Automatic annotation (TrEMBL):
Keywords: Auxin biosynthesis. Its EC number is 1.13.12.3. Pfam families: Amino_oxidase. It comes from Methylobacterium crusticola. Residues 38-431 form the Amine oxidase domain. It catalyses: L-tryptophan + O2 = indole-3-acetamide + CO2 + H2O. InterPro entries: Amino_oxidase, FAD/NAD-bd_sf, Flavin_monoamine_oxidase. Belongs to the tryptophan 2-monooxygenase family. This is Tryptophan 2-monooxygenase. Pathway: Plant hormone metabolism; auxin biosynthesis. Transmembrane segments: none annotated. It comes from the Bacteria.
Amino acid sequence: MTAGPAPHAHRHLAPTLRPALAPLPADPDVVVVGAGSAGIAAARRLLARGLRVAVLEARDRVGGRTLTTALRGHPVDLGAHWLHAGPINPLVQLGLARGEPLRRAAQESHLWVGRRRGRPAEEAAFARAWSVADRAMSDGARLGGPDRPAATALPPGLGPWGRRVALVHGLVSGRPLGEVSLHDFPSMEYGDNHFVAGGYGAYLARLAAGLPVALAAPVRAIDWSGPGVTLEAGAHGRLRARAAIVTAPVMVLRDAVAFSPPLPDPVRGAIDGFSAGIYEHVVLHWPSAPFRGRDRLASLTEGRLQPPGLLTRVDGTPFHYFELDAPLAARLDAARAGADGARRLVRASLAEHVGRGLLGDLAVPAVTEWRHDPWSRGSWAVVPPGHAGARDLLKASVGDRIWFAGEALSRLQWGTAGGAYEEGERAADAVAQALG
Ligand SMILES: Cc1cc2nc3c(=O)[nH]c(=O)nc-3n(C[C@H](O)[C@H](O)[C@H](O)COP(=O)(O)OP(=O)(O)OC[C@H]3O[C@@H](n4cnc5c(N)ncnc54)[C@H](O)[C@@H]3O)c2cc1C
């Protein structure tokens, strides 16, 4: 643990919007730890229920793992960008009600096989591999039995298309499917996606406007030995309240916050058992990319280097996201290659598929490193095989004084800002009920 506010990975990239925040009340009923999606949701819900709230945020900005910054004059998301699962995502429903500039994500995508565009028969084979693999994993999870790696449910014989499906599932899961619980699989819900013009981070920042948030106030210790809770927040000193909602990522809770008395063993076990999901954006500015159409995913298959994920022409601009999965990020880290290593990897991968000639105007203005940021330590929490009960276990209060919330607790929308928001509201309702 460090003494002052620790630096965080993207601090040189300022948010496009810093909302005006309210001062903390003198005697809060509830302290919310963290002003990401879950913390913002919890604070809004608690205030709506008439409770006094203080939010303590470690970074010098709100939004957590959502952050919209300006690159070459365009708002670009460095964290969450997709509003997944429209019908069940509270941020879609709220956005529609508020008149936020939402739009549906395109269904069309690009398939590239080696150095050429995919043929209709190849597209059909790829689509078939998706549905066979998804059905096998959903069935494997539904049938119960001992938990096992999601990869073991994949039918053999799907060939290269099956390997591509497994690679993409590993990317969006945050870890290769061999390290992901099969029983957690049905919670992956990615249908009916949306985007918000101006960025997801800016949308969350608008939702934080007027909330009582102290920035640069990292909570180091939570004492729940008495009737309420006492929190130590660095230079902000000590805050007492009747209850706390803790939304710091579980990867951060492993050792950055001391609980006294220690958390009950099952709760501690649930927190420590998650693994860190890795998903990083390498942001490309590439006007002459051969991909047409706005917001389309591109699968570049065959060849030595296959990008696990590529979102092209983001918001109809020359920006694209080249995504790094856990194995690629680990390779860069092992070689201590940093952002320049990521740039070299991108160039080599794209050159293999489109030729060097098209890379003349390719620039890489940002490479994210959420995995090295002390306030996230990863992109989202992953349930390894055998740990499938952890999300639900963390929903119960600790001693009717501490509630956890955040993306890690969401069963149907884990790893998403929408899931985090829903969990923040759930925890706020539980606290409000407990406090009467
Ligand atoms: C590159 C990337 C791409 C992603 N893409 C998508 C996407 O397209 N769609 C999607 O829905 N989701 C996506 N996600 C995941 C999404 O960003 C997260 O699931 C979601 O934002 C998590 O919200 P949260 O409130 O649970 O946690 P956070 O947003 O991490 O909020 C927790 C807050 O707590 C603060 N904090 C931590 N420790 C302390 C402490 N000790 N004291 C005080 N404050 C503390 C943190 O600074 C942070 O502000 C992506 C994530 C990454 C990294």
